[in-house]
Structure formats: C-alpha cells, structure tokens
Specification:
Blueprint: H1 8-37, H2 41-47, E1 50-53, E2 62-67, E3 70-76, H3 79-84, H4 88-91, E4 119-123, E5 134-136, E6 151-154, E7 159-162, E8 182-185, E9 190-193
Antiparallel strand pairs: 1-9, 2-3, 3-4, 5-6, 6-7, 8-9
C-alpha cells in the first residue's frame, strides 16, 4: 500500500493516543470490579477482635459492646453473686448446670463459665429465637420468682438465665448463652473479645 500523501508521524500519534485512551478506559471499567472484591473496612472490623477497657466497671455493673454484629455483655459479678452460682438450690433449677451441651471455650467450661470468675463475658442473644434478654439484678424491682438471684430474663418468651448465662429448666431456650473466646491482659484491666488467651483469633 502506498504511503504517498500520508502523514506517518500523525498516524503514529493517533495510534498511540488511541491505545493510551483505551488502556485508561479499561482501567476505569475494571476498577469497580477489583474494588468490590476487597472487603470493606466495616466488614474487616466486624470480624476483628475487640479490645475493651473494663477498669471502670463497678461490681454488679453490665457493660455492652459489639463484636461481629452481636451484643457482648461483660458483667462484673459481686462476691455474693459468685457464691450464689454454686448454691445447690440454684443448680437444681438449671437445665445444663455443667455446660455440657452449651457453646463455650474449654477454658470457660466451669461453674463460672469464665477465665476470671469476677467477669462474665457472654453473647447477649437468647438461644431460643435470638431475642436480647434483660439484665436484672437480685435487688432490682421485678416480678420474677422469689428465688431469683440475678441474671438475665428474656421477656419475648420467658426464658431465664443465671449470672453465668446458664439456662433454667422449663423455659423455651434450649441452651446456655454462648461464651465467646476472650482473653484478659494489661493486669486484668482490659479484655480482648475474639481471641484465645494464647492470642489465637477466632
């Protein structure tokens, strides 16, 4: 083919420009797809361990934090409530007093369902239909039975849990409340939810 009358320099410039524009355009088209494959900061945060300062929680007080989109309760139990967890009159009323059927790390499978007996760390979701129970202390104003020693009551369908998150007999909830993996550090003033004491994340 004859190149007479054809501006070769101009042709090369147009060819190069078209190639560059095409590449840039492809980049803009591809970017949304690549970006959509990356987890968002919110998604990453939802699964990450959560550090909680518990140094200011008073005995008997409940602190609520969010982890993986779920409410996690941290209760600082009183000496009286800790003694009550071992009373036979309470144990006889529980469906799974030894937590044999319930979900908790091995290190929290004890009468307190905790690493540190003073602190209960539990997911605040009823094991019946996923409602969120209320924290009701022994001395709070309530219409609960006279044997109530404090714990959690789900008003949706009437399930009771003690201050170790153990479910009572004869209520709709089939299992004890779930204990998440957690670890204490900074001389017990902080708790990390979502990791084992050895540091392994869930």
């Amino acid at each position: 083919m004859s190149t007479e009358g054809v501006n070769v320099t101009r042709r090369r410039f147009l060819l190069a420009s078209t190639t560059v524009v095409g590449a840039v355009g492809t980049g803009f088209i591809a970017y949304p797809f690549v970006a959509s494959m990356q987890p968002s900061a919110k998604t990453q945060a939802a699964g990450a361990p959560v550090e909680v300062d518990i140094s200011k929680i008073e005995p008997g007080q409940l602190l609520i934090v969010e982890w993986r989109g779920k409410p996690v309760w941290i209760v600082r139990r009183t000496e009286e409530s800790l003694k009550g967890l071992k009373e036979q009159s309470l144990l006889d009323r529980l469906r799974d007093a030894d937590s044999n059927e319930s979900e908790q790390p091995d290190y929290a499978k004890n009468e307190y369902r905790a690493i540190n007996s003073e602190y209960l760390v539990v997911i605040g979701i009823c094991t019946h239909l996923g409602c969120s129970p209320s924290y009701i202390k022994k001395d709070d104003t309530h219409n609960l039975p006279g044997w109530w020693m404090g714990g959690f009551f789900c008003p949706c369908h009437g399930s009771f849990f003690d201050l170790a998150g153990r479910v009572f007999k004869g209520v709709p909830a089939p299992l004890n409340l779930v204990i998440p993996k957690h670890a204490f550090f900074a001389n017990g003033t902080k708790v990390m939810i979502g990791v084992d004491p050895e540091g392994g994340a869930t």
